[in-house]
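Take a look at my tokenised protein here and describe the backbone shape.
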Amino acid sequence: MRKIIVFNRISIDGYFASLNQETWGMDWFIFDPEVDKAARELGDSKEPPLLLMGGITYSGFERSWVPHLTDPNSPPAMRTVAEELTKMTKLVFSKSIKTSNWENTRLFTGDLTDEIRKIKQDKGADIMIMGSGSIIQQLAKVNLIDDYIFIVSPVIAGQGKTMFSNVPQIGLKLMSSQSFASGNLLLHYTIS
């Protein structure tokens, strides 16, 4: 059975994105290549995970990353991430997105929890959720998420988007933690 893993950056006060649409909600993130490297090493699967997203997150990813695939002036690190995301199977739940030209994208308009229960039962790579607060809320409410990996940035955002509105209390067990010179913390929790 596949695991469902949430992977998000969060502020000290628990927001995963700001309200600033111009920066795609990432204006307070403190990027650190050492954190990104350590986060990649947490996965226990040999194959890349499936990437589960809602329409807003998917549209932002597509706008941000696809241009790096063909832009000769893109920094190599950005192109590498764009290539990794392109190779991943992207499961997109949206009522408004009808078509996609981004490779390896599967669009769903049906019931999220029913579809994910079916996909989770299959053998294969784990399912990772990035961004997508409404997807996280829906799946957490019905206990379909197995692990949470957070990069906690040393910032009090003050306001933003939360992942856990109207979600019942869920007990977590800390699997690992790591601190970095940038002030970021990498936390890995599983359901207790």
Notes: The chain has a mean pLDDT of 90. Residues 76-87 form the longest helix (12 residues). The chain has one domain: 4-191. Strands lie at 4-11, 15-17, 50-54, 90-93, 105-108, 127-129, 147-153, 161-162, 172-179, 185-191.
